[in-house]
Design goal:
Length: about 725
């Protein structure tokens, strides 16, 4: 069967209202068969432009209106941000500094400009409708040479150019959930407003990005900004983001998930042994292991291994350690609540109205229908009963593949994941408190951007350097899709060589949150390397926390591609094996047993955070890295904040002449939050701070040893530079 497609050919008519521009387009028919005459004008498409907020234009392209779109993620009405104009040659629609221009004559095309600069345009075949073998409606946007595209959720790559993707999460591994949003290096992004299946083609066959969804209508948002960061900020503002307080572990986070052999005594023994090793444990995650081994679902702790769960949790808290568990929508027929779920229609049903039951190792399992309000309410109460024992953190453990039911749409699966995550988040807020709630999500969907953390993990039982690179790329890709704060799970120590396990641990422990498997080391050498990485994480923790708060407030991803920070550097756009942690720290994970690593250093003098070695760019560096080291470099003219007890420490790296170095410390402890500015001008350094209350402060000048005078305190020299303690809001330093 051939494909019959109609393309938007030319402008037929238009209507201008105060906040909307409605266009009527002639459609040109095309059939992929030599026996069919092509080029016939046939049919009409209506394209409507409006704006929900400044810098965003909503476009709705419709062949025939068939009813309200039930798959829409955002239901935004036109606002005063949009305004339509016309002149002799063109129609204009403006939303703040974003402008769409449509020529009256010739082939239909929309050219988008931001601040007067063209950023993208629809291709000649701008909109289309395909009726065979299935009906899809879509749009095409031009791609310029050298342009990069990021996002789409879990992609396993940092740049999408040349790839074909679908947001059919049922056909994807759970680690690769797809979201219909991408952002371009040219300062614009596109979000297809649907929870359904969307097909993307990122210039795999021509110089255009093509996207389409099922049906006779497609709605999408063109989002513009000066940089990709601005685009993501506007996108997350449109979909919603939440300033959630974070529990960033400064010690180890241990993950017992998948292990049903441990009990209260063995866990306490592990924690005591870690203490003897000189290791600080901040968190333990039990996964589903608190449940009976023969059931693995339900809401009751295993009485044989945990006879008094509340008492056990108090013992963990007395050690200063937080505890987390996993919650899921699955329920075994071996638990008492199963019959209640069947009798009250709480389970997901197939097209015949029968509960969808899945065979697993311990019997039969159903899935609680979280899209049903009665089932949601019931499940929320059950989760509350588990969390109210004193649980601090929660993992929303749902995976699409266990939900498969014939006849269900992609929207159903997407909405199910989002609804389940919302239930877990709501329960966590109720039981733990909004200021302490932490939720790790294993699956997600369109519109689910309001809470950290998205879990980054690999499904393979055997780890490899390729899967490590894929996990790092996934973290970056999710960040560029609006999931700026992530957790990275480290594979089992049994699935990796000691070297690979150490390299994976280094990459994960630099992220906002991570979890180590139990057992977490094999020998003394691995333990020492782990301690060194803990020291690195501890030193960067305040900086990472500030990055996380920035992400929660403005949508900026913590782990981001090099090109986000260096948009005009062409070499920085092609660095898939390294990334920026916030705006000031460059991380270059090691992907080889031999320790060989090659990375790009942008312009300026960068400082190795661990060794204080200096490297000047722009250039590509290739070297062999010792197993105990992770290449982490600090950007020139940067300040890395940290805390030493009640003292706020400002570490300055490669201060540049005449340029202010600034850092905003956004810690959750508001008394230790504020802004610091440092200016080096000739023989003087001026330090100004604001907002730190009565906290004592310390300035570390890396690479500077010629201090001859200070307005306060006493300079102390070491092998790296000069340290000065001060308490006032201004410090003047004289150099010799």
């Amino acid at each position: 069967m051939y494909s019959l497609t109609k393309y938007a050919g030319s402008l037929r008519d238009y209507t201008i209202t105060e906040n909307t521009l409605a266009l009527g387009l002639n459609m040109t028919e095309f059939a992929e068969t030599p026996l069919t005459d092509n080029g016939r004008n046939y049919g009409r498409m209506k394209v409507t432009l409006s704006s929900p907020q400044s810098g965003i234009i909503k476009i709705n392209a419709c062949v025939r209106y068939t009813g309200k779109d039930e798959t829409a993620v955002v239901n935004a009405r036109p606002s005063a941000a949009g305004a339509a104009e016309e002149d002799e040659d063109a129609l204009l629609f403006k939303a703040g500094m974003l402008e769409a221009r449509i020529q009256r004559a010739g082939a239909f095309r929309i050219v988008f400009s931001y601040c007067g600069n063209a950023i993208t345009a629809t291709s000649i075949n701008s909109f289309f409708n395909t009726r065979r073998p299935a009906e899809y409606t879509g749009a095409c946007f031009d791609i310029t040479p050298g342009e990069s595209c990021y996002g789409l959720g879990g992609s396993g790559v940092t740049d999408l150019i040349g790839r074909k993707e679908e947001t059919d999460n049922m056909s994807e591994s759970a680690a690769f959930n797809k979201i219909p949003f991408y952002v371009s290096s040219r300062g614009y992004g596109i979000f297809v407003n649907t929870t359904g299946l969307v097909k993307f083609d990122f210039a795999s066959q021509n110089g255009a990005v093509t996207f389409s969804n099922e049906g006779e209508t497609i709605e999408f948002y063109v989002i513009a900004g000066g940089t990709p960061s601005d685009v993501i900020a506007a996108y997350t503002q449109l979909l919603g983001r939440e300033n959630i307080n974070l529990n960033l572990c400064d010690g180890l986070s241990l993950n017992y998930a998948g292990n049903y052999d441990y009990d209260e005594q063995s866990i306490l023994s592990d924690l005591n042994q870690a203490h003897e090793y000189g290791i600080t444990i901040s968190e333990i995650w039990l996964g589903h292991g608190y449940l009976p081994k023969t059931i693995k679902t339900g809401f009751s702790w295993d009485p044989a291994r945990f006879p008094d769960p509340a008492k056990f949790i108090r013992k963990i808290h007395d050690l200063g350690i937080r505890i987390g568990i996993s919650l899921s929508p699955y329920i075994s027929d071996a638990v008492p609540e199963f019959a209640e779920c069947v009798d009250n229609d709480y389970l997901v049903k197939n097209s015949k109205g029968e509960p969808v039951l899945t065979e697993y190792e311990n019997g039969t399992m159903g899935i609680i229908d979280v899209l049903s309000q009665p089932a949601r309410n019931w499940l929320g109460l059950k989760f509350d009963s588990v969390l109210q024992l004193g649980i601090d953190m929660v993992e929303a453990d749902f995976k699409y593949e266990l939900l498969y039911t014939e006849g269900m749409t992609a929207s159903y699966y997407n909405n199910f994941a989002v609804a389940f995550n919302n239930i877990v988040t709501d329960c966590s807020v109720r039981c733990v408190g909004s200021g302490n709630s932490s939720v790790i999500r294993n699956s997600t969907g369109a519109g689910d951007t309001v809470a950290p953390y998205r879990n980054i993990y690999m499904n393979k039982n055997t780890a490899s350097y390729s899967s490590l690179a894929c996990a790092v790329n996934n973290a970056i890709s999710y960040g560029m899709t609006g999931y700026g704060i992530i957790n990275m799970d480290i594979p089992s120590i049994a699935s990796a060589s000691p070297t690979l396990y150490t390299r994976w641990t280094q990459a994960a422990m630099i992220m906002p949150h991570y979890r180590l498997p139990v057992p977490f080391c094999k020998d003394a050498a691995m333990l020492e390397n782990l301690k060194k990485m803990l020291d690195v994480r501890s030193g960067l923790l305040s900086y990472v926390e500030s990055c996380c708060i920035e992400s929660a407030n403005f949508g900026m991803p913590v782990a981001r591609p090099m090109s986000v920070e260096f948009p005009t550097d062409r070499l920085a756009q092609k660095c898939p094996t390294q990334f920026m942690l916030g705006s000031a720290v460059m991380v270059c994970p090691v992907y080889s047993t031999a320790g060989n690593v090659s990375f790009y250093v942008p312009a300026g003098t960068w400082t190795n955070y661990i060794t204080r070695e200096k490297i000047s760019g722009p250039r590509i560096v290739s070297r062999k890295v010792e197993i105990s080291e992770l290449p982490v470099y600090v950007r020139p003219n940067s300040i890395i904040p940290s805390h030493a007890g009640e003292t706020v420490v400002f570490s300055c790296f490669e201060l540049s002449e005449g340029n202010v170095a600034a850092a905003e410390v956004l810690g959750q402890n508001k008394s230790l939050s504020g802004v610091v500015n440092v200016l080096k001008a000739e023989d003087r350094i001026t330090v100004k701070t604001e907002g730190f209350g009565r906290a004592s402060k310390k300035l570390v000048l890396n690479g500077i040893t010629n201090v001859v005078g200070v307005s306060e305190g006493f300079p102390e020299n070491d092998q790296y530079g000069t340290t000065i303690e001060f308490s006032s809001n201004e410090l003047i330093i004289t150099l010799g």
